[in-house]
Amino acid sequence: MSTAVAIVGAGIGGLTAALCLAHRGFDVDIIEQAAVLTEVGAGLQLSPNASRILSELGLLDALESVWTEPDAITLVDGKSLRALARVPSGRFARDRWSAPYGVLHRASLQRILIAAVTAEPRCRLHLGHRIEGDAEQAIASTTGRTPALIIGADGIWSRLRNAIAGAGTVQFSGNVAWRLTVTRAAADNLLQPDRVTAFLGARAHLVAYPLREIGGFNLVAIIEGKETDGVWVGKDSEVRRRDYLDAFSTWNNGLQTLLKNADAPTYWPLCTVTDGAWQDGRKIVLIGDAAHAMTPFAAQGAAMAIEDADALAACLSSANDISEALRAFEATRRPRIAQVRRRAAFNRFAYHARGPFRLGRDIVLSMKGPEALAADFDWLYGYGAPER
Questions:
Q1: CATH code: domain of residue 106
Q2: What is the C-alpha separation between 257 and 273, in angstroms, rounded?
Q3: pLDDT single digits (tens) 125-147
Q4: What is the pLDDT of residue 83?
């Protein structure tokens, strides 16, 4: 099998795939349309199933220099601030799932990945090149070599997806995410720097966790919302902000004030990619959001792209030819993606529950201790961990 691979897209999934492939002896070209790499968004949760792979790539020391390992992941009632559940993390995560749980700025992870790719002699990064028309010809023109395989890591609005018959399509999920950061002083003791906190309410929830790089907190407020005429990310507007604040109008006053006073929040319509083909059986395969973008209710979007990268590299290194490798990749990843999608759908229902469903949720959570709750994540966070 030829060892030349091209990756379209230099996001988290694409850069991780490049490193995974290079470590298995493949020569990799990464093509990115942006002339300068910048990461949109702010915070990112790296659960053990993802950090394990990054650690195996030799990146753990760099990650530890910028991230925070929260002591716990907590669920809290957004109105009363009553604690509903607590899953231990920190040292517990390393012991139970054999890898850490960290939170950091997306830009920090991208910088770490870019530095590793730049230092890897088997990787070549090509910025400012847009792949249009015949992908194979465009890539050969850009890189000077014809790849044996083209990997589409170009996100939810993937152009390479158009080259695959029966591929999924983008659809609006019915939810909008507002992303913002606040200083530790502005948080006024509402947010704790040693944990990830999910505040729950009817039709909305708010996730907050510390960002060591800014000395403050990352917040993601997710509400039921309307489509935005194809606008993927937008700045604050009076109409949008009214919808956003109305969704939290019955919440704790302190949280309402925090959300109201936050500087320059941005909104993201949350879209998914419907189930469809991920590869053409011959030369093109999609990974990450390009293949199976999902809602963030399980905080696994980046993790699934990282898992895809590792799995695809493993399949390519062990198969006799590319077609066999692509079949093996799908057979490995489809059940896993479906399981994570189901968990995200369940979390969406549970987080935004109201009426009797909310009462039932709270009763069930109150009956489970931290260890029992942690056990519910073994299938997710322990994925790929060595046998204990």
A1: 3.50.50.60
A2: 35
A3: 999 888 888 888 989 889 999 99
A4: 94
For residue 335, what pLDDT band results from cuts at 50, 70 and 90? very high
Tokens of 67: 């991230």
Q: Three-class SS of residue 221?
A: strand
Euclidean distance between CA atoms 155 and 12, whole angstroms: 10
Q: What is the pLDDT of residue 60?
A: 98
Helices of type H across 281-354? 289-292, 301-318, 322-351
CA gyration radius, the chain = 21
243's tokens: 């919808």
pLDDT by residue (tens digit) across 250-281? 999 999 999 998 877 888 889 999 999 999 99
Q: Are 121 and 19 in contact (CB under 8 A)?
A: no
* Average pLDDT of span 292-303: 96
Angle at 160 between CA 154 and CA 163, to 5 degrees: 165
Residue 167: CB partners within 8 Å, gap ≥ 6?
161, 276, 277, 278, 286
Instruction: Examine residue 204 and state whether it is found in any structural domain, yes or no.
Output: no
Residue numbers annotated as active site: 209
Range of the domain at 280: 4-70+100-169+274-349
Please tell me the total count of domains within the chain.
1
